[in-house]
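Exercise 3.2. Students should predict the tertiary structure of the chain below and write it as structure tokens, then compare their answer with the key that follows.

Predict this chain's 3D structure.
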Amino acid sequence: MDLSPRHLQLREMLFRRWKTNGAKVGDKIESQNEIIKFCDFSLITVIKTLKDLEAEGVIRRQVGKGSFLVKTPWTEAHHRIGFFYNRDIVGGGIFNNEFYTKLVVAFEKRVVSDGHEFIMGSFTNDKMPVEMWDRLDGVVLTGLTPDTRLDDLALTSSQIAVIDMTLEGLPYSTYRIDFAPAFADMFTRFGTEPRRYLYLNSSIASSEQVARLEAFKAAAAAAPVAQELKVISVNQETGADDTIALHDAVERFKPDFVCGYMHMSWHARIQQWSEKQVKVYPFGLDVDRAGFVINSGDWMRQALSSLYAHLDDRQLPAQIYNFPATFRP
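Answer key:
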């Protein structure tokens, strides 16, 4: 069917509006007069576009009752799912970061094995590619911080979900890791006598960073015997070479355990700086070493199941999906 640029533009606008509103087959759509009120097209263009949509079988027009959706071309069994990360946080690129590399590989593997198309990209604290997201069915974001401008999220018709940051008061689901059970397991095992724990708290602020620290403190407080805890801030992403505070804490505090956010290169340095053998327990994704560990395949399976379930109606509830980490001593 040969459509003019104006008709194509209106068609795209209507599909985007219906997609955003979660319109389903059988739903009544706006009348031609209602369409004119929210768009900048002439009555002739609106009438012609609606007639074309009727001829294609997208809508059914009933005299005296209005027009109804017969099919929704923007929803298919084959979906386009995007994974986008914050380049301001992962400055060297996502494949220079072990955690994010494993996460995106697990996400891609699951999406492709489910028969859908995988798209990966990035955004910054100041700019999000909402025009690209409009062409996708679902988008999962990671690396959001309090510095990230969130206004653009409301501008896209794609279904949005977030990894590892809870956006209070906003209609987006969060897929987060719950480290509380793993912390509790560690203190149950080793908290029978007083020991010193150095917790490395990320200087990259987020709701998850705060929640993990509070969960660690709560688990330490619940240990069978009182434990000594010291917390310092580190930049494990872009400040891997800045180890002054870590070096000083290891030498002065003399910890038995170092836990939390840390760069891979710090593990050996911690042992070098310490006068005794130190147990090092970082956050880890799909690793065989000791630490607080997450199976990325199982996590992404849980996350994507909820995303898929709501792609047709775009009504993914603003819910927190918790995935438990395990402790590997």
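Discussion points: Residues 282 and 293 are 8 Å apart (CA to CA). The mean pLDDT is 90.
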